[in-house]
Amino acid sequence: MIADGVHSFSDLVTDTAILIGSRYWTAPADKEHPYGHGRFETLTNIFIGVILAIVGIGIGWDSINSIGNEAKTNPGMLAFGAAIVSILVKEILYRWTVIQAKKINSRALHANAWHHRSDALSSLPVAIAVIANYFVPDLHYLDQVAALLVTAMILKAAFEILWPAIMEITEAEADSDIENKIQQYASENSDIREVHAIRNRRTGSSILLDFHLLVDPDMSVDKAHEITEDFKSHILEQLDEVVDVIIHIEPYNCAERVINPCCGEDECHDENPKD
To answer: Which domains does the chain have, with CATH numbers?
Structure first.
């Protein structure tokens, strides 16, 4: 029960981190942060994950050390009622927080929602242990077992929050499906001959995207610019998480082609489905 209480108290710490962090990651881009302040949200996620991990390790360590120690008193039905109330309240908080996180597209708020859910789930073994201990007083070890289950749930939640944040900090690909979507959008535009070198990375709840776009070598600069701007607008409309797109324009010639490279006249024919 104490372990579950400590877990619930950690909610207060992470909620405070969300309130403070949101003031920074929602700030617009400036001279010092030209790509925006999204990484402040990532740092908040890391903070939430670390706090959860510390709480989980502390509870687990205490539980292991106390295994075999006989409790002086058995928990009463008041403890059971407290666990049930905690389950209901935390589940309500989880559902409400998830709705708000989706509205504003906040990964940090979504992480905190799962912190509430893990709190609700961790109260289940507590409630079971209390009620079992009440009816079978000799099963003292159930309290330590329940605490270890709480520890496992907390550490699982901490990992699921920390891992995406670590991947973001190490510049991992944000979404593996984006390349296929860009290729699909490009295939629907007859003015675009090819797109390649597609890269995307996450900053907070947003994704930054860049790629090379090939057009007819004889096309004017103005026309090529117009095509890329229209294509950029289309991407931003279709992909909600993408907030910025950098497009490098190149001529569709043998030196720049990657997907459909040029080859010798005797080896193959230059085939372009859009010609």
So the answer is: 2-169 (1.20.1510.10), 178-251 (3.30.70.1350)
